[in-house]
């Protein structure tokens, strides 16, 4: 097995362990790990991304934000490059949700290429989920608002991957009317 494949599998296992008690907000309460796996798959399959650091960061993109995992743990287990990308895509949960959203829009264009790829794939996955299996407590307006906010974030991420930009645009076209 190649070192890159081993790293990716270790990251998938790590993410699965850290997210093991979490569920998505959809009606089926599907396992949370489905989301980071979908983000990594979007990068690899639709974006043609083969860089292991980017794929590993995609698998781990929510572990610091949504679990007890620390940035130091990510660094210790997966190295500085991965930890740096994860840090770039992690929101500060001490801030109010509206401020976190504002900062995602504001900071999108200054992210590294790897962080932009992960963030774009994350938004693609989220839009697709909002269409196929929205949270039951999200009304029409909340779903519309999320689509518009995601569009604003992705405008700052453009220029790193035409295939991912096209995938985002296709997902965005499915926005609630």
From TrEMBL:
CDD domains documented for this protein: HDc (cd00077)
Pfam family, one: HD_4
PROSITE patterns with a match to the protein in the record: HD (PS51831)
Listed SUPFAM superfamilies: HD-domain/PDEase-like
InterPro entries, A to Z: HD/PDEase_dom, HD_domain, MESH1
Residues in coiled coil: none
Domain HD positions: 32-127
Top-level division of the source organism's lineage: Bacteria
The protein's required cofactors: Mn(2+)
Keyword Manganese: yes
Residues making up the signal peptide according to the UniProt record: none
Protein name, per record: Phosphohydrolase
Naturally occurring in which organism (per UniProt): Allosphingosinicella humi
